[in-house]
Amino acid sequence: MADHDDGELTIKAGGQELAGWTEVDIIRGVEVCPSLFHIAMTEKFAADSPSVVMAPGDPCVVSIGGEPVITGYVDRLIPQIRGKTQHWLAVEGRSKSQDMVDCSAEWPGGQIKGSSVLEIAKKLASVYKDLTVEGAVDTGPPLPQFNLTIGETAYSIIERLARFRKLLIYDLPNGNLTLAQAGKDKMGSGLKQGENIQDAQCEYSADQRFSVYEAFITATDTLFDIGDGGNLLAKETDDGIKRHRLRTMISEGGALGNDVAKQRAVWEKNRQAGRSQTMTATVDSWKDSGGKLWTPNASIPIDAPALKLPEGITWVISQVRFRRSLRDGTTADLVIMPKGAFEPEPIVLPGLNGLPGEIGTK
Question: Could you write out the DSSP letters of every residue in 97-166?
């Protein structure tokens, strides 16, 4: 059981700071962007004298125990009637990074020259007030030139460039996007069977794994007499799959695509092996034993022998869902996987993969 107070959830919006929310659902994750929330409470005043003064589009900060978890905007205000006597009010919103996810990218002339991936990301974010992209990792040397595609969102552009540099992109509690490597943070404590785990399960799968991954130049060999020698670029094997199962990948974009195809074979093997092991757990607190909120992309030790997990295992939190309801109380749902599950997919970026010393893959 939790030995500390999770703290009150509050939302600051419309010049107010409101607490007393009895329904809470907040989702953050390394594969969830923007972060989002749904909160609700009983409406205490008559309809002609509302207790809440906020409107869709208002800036807001959602905090737990005074610590921000989402900084963004109110998307929807939903007054409700539940039965004959109950008036409720629900508020939904998302991180301020939503503007980069929803809106088309903007930059004068549509061409950015001599900028690193982080610098490009910051330039695309600069059209929005109080929004930027952070990154404490090396995002590589400047790219000679990058051209925007009309109508493409800023987030989709940054996501491609992040993959090119083998990085993840997701939003932070302050609403900014971040470029980061998998497992960059550590939780102060982990999950332990018989202590803070209420419900949990592990799923071990083999249906998306293959024994052999092959990268080819073309889909078929037109010169059968020389075998695969002229077409086969790379072969990777997964010793965890005991029967023959073949996955073939085709190179794209000529010689540069050949390099990416080789490394996609490695990526496909590692990612599918990582995603073949997934743990979902419901814990009895929004925080670890040290009082730190559960955080996406943080490494977490797991002690759950009943789930057939090896002793001393450490995986990475993919998603956190903070929940509170009258029925279930205060809980957090965690999705956790091995670090290899988050390895970014190699990508071909025309005009960039051929830079000296550059390749958008591992």
Answer: THHHHHSBP--GGGEEEEE-HHHHHHHHHTTSTT--EE--S---SPEEEEEPPTT-BHHHHHHHHHHHTT
